[in-house]
Amino acid sequence: MKGWQGVLQGDVPLAAGLSSSAALEMATARAFAVAADLAWEPVPMAKLGQRAENRWVGVNCGIMDQLISAAGRAGHALLIDCRSLETQPVPFPPGIAVVVLDTATRRGLVDSAYNERRSQCEPQRVSSG
After folding, report:
1. Each residue's pLDDT tens digit, 48-87
2. Is the pLDDT of residue 13 over 90?
3. Which residues are registered as beta bridge partners of 87?
4. Residue 113 belongs to some domain of the structure
């Protein structure tokens, strides 16, 4: 039987809101796709990462974090249609600088009311009978 053993190191502050779990999911999926000589398909991979968050972690997150990690390009924003999951890279204007700051404000979706709020926004299913 074969397995995989790896080491992960990073310096992204925990719960900083930088989509680090989605980035890690997509980096891992990309590494396995390369190792297996599979074509990279951003949407199916993003859905797989979202499913892991929903079912294993317990966060009923959307698809945005995984999709930008799967389909993003350096020097571009990513326009995402969350209904069709179509994406379009949009180049940053010349001379623009993107700055990421650690404000030390931590967030945790698992321990927050996020799942409840998302449930409240979803269409209610009516049972027939």
Report:
1. 999 998 898 888 888 999 999 999 999 999 999 988 999 9
2. no
3. 80
4. yes
SS3 67: helix
| Catalytic-residue membership of 65 | yes
Please spell the DSSP secondary structure of 9-65, one letter per residue: ---PPTTSSS-HHHHHHHHHHHHHHHHTTPPP-HHHHHHHHHHHIIIII-----SHH
pLDDT bracket for residue 93 (50, 70, 90): very high
Catalytic option among 11, 37, 65, 81: 65
Number of compact structural domains in the chain: 1
Please report whether residue 15 resides in a domain: no
Q: What are the CA-CA distances from residue 126 to residues 66, 112, 121 (Å)?
A: 30, 27, 15
